[in-house]
Design a protein that fits this description.
Length: 292
């Protein structure tokens, strides 16, 4: 795994509790201010609400008028979105969002929160888009519009090294797993008959797995490789991989109001793929190009 110049411990230890507190506080502030017609907290200290809640015209026009696009993400899922040793929000999706914002001619303003509230917040208009390794699914497409894919990843079953009971997805039947609630990983595990425990972030999931309090967890293949690059002695392995890759896309609110925004984001993604920018960002954080 290609190193990113970030102190290894900083991705997975040290600041997890503080970040959870900060993310919760930020989310509460967004709710409180939204109720007063005010602005939501961002990870970088500026304020604003999703453009759909203010002004007239379509969403893209309001974003450009405001000069910023509000972007929701977890901030606790390395290497997608996380905090470095100086507590700065960094990661693959952070850089992707900034590049797309630049193509739109605006600044990216980040709002952090726990996974199970991010999509609901998007639907409620508390931010404009969500950039957080979100897989496209037909079920989600009934509630949200999606951009074209900007990444392709396979799902891995991760188990302890001495686990010989799980070698395929069918072996998940009757087993225990852990993932964030409403994630595609939790849904996939349950479809194969596993009992899923809800957690707040990947750090909790790995802790439960290492303590053998669960049998397995499902996550992106590249996320596992990143973790092992930081913790090469961790007693973990991949038991099985999906044959087909999931499409990682950007969800938006449904409706004609967001159509021009989706088209602009699709154009930005196409340009960033064509000039190699997305591939370079992927190599930086994953050690491989997941954008093809």
């Amino acid at each position: 795994m290609k190193k990113t110049g970030i102190r290894k411990e900083s991705r997975w230890t040290g600041r997890t509790v503080w970040r959870k507190f900060a993310a919760t506080a930020a989310a509460l502030a967004v709710l409180a201010l939204a109720g007063c017609g005010g602005a939501g907290n961002s990870a970088e200290g500026s304020s604003g609400t999703g453009a759909a809640l203010t002004g007239s015209g379509d969403q893209l026009a309001r974003i450009r008028e405001a000069g910023k696009i509000t972007v929701a993400m977890e901030g606790t899922w390395a290497p997608w979105t996380y905090h470095d040793e100086s507590d700065k929000l960094v990661g693959f999706d952070v850089e992707v969002a900034k590049q797309i914002a630049g193509k739109l001619g605006v600044e990216a303003e980040f709002i952090e929160g726990e996974w199970d509230g991010l999509l609901a917040g998007l639907e409620a208009g508390r931010y404009d888009i969500m950039v957080n390794g979100v897989d496209y699914t037909e079920e989600r497409a009934q509630k949200y519009d999606f951009s074209e894919p900007y990444g392709y990843i396979r799902t891995a079953i991760i188990v302890n090294k001495d686990n010989t009971d799980i070698t395929s997805f069918e072996d998940l039947k009757g087993k225990t797993t852990a993932n964030t609630i409403s994630s595609t990983y939790a849904e996939l595990a349950e479809r194969y008959g596993a009992t899923t425990t809800g957690v707040d972030d990947l750090n909790q999931t790995i802790e439960l797995l290492l303590q053998k309090r669960i049998d397995a967890t499902l996550n992106a293949e590249v996320t596992f490789y990143d973790y092992m690059g930081v913790h090469p002695d961790a007693e973990l392995k991949i038991a099985a991989l999906t044959e087909d890759a999931n499409h990682v896309c950007i969800p938006l609110r449904k409706g004609e109001d967001s159509q021009s925004l989706r088209e602009a984001i699709n154009q930005a993604i196409a340009e960033l793929k064509a000039d190699g920018t997305l591939g370079q960002i992927s190599e930086k954080y994953f050690g491989t190009d997941i954008t093809k």
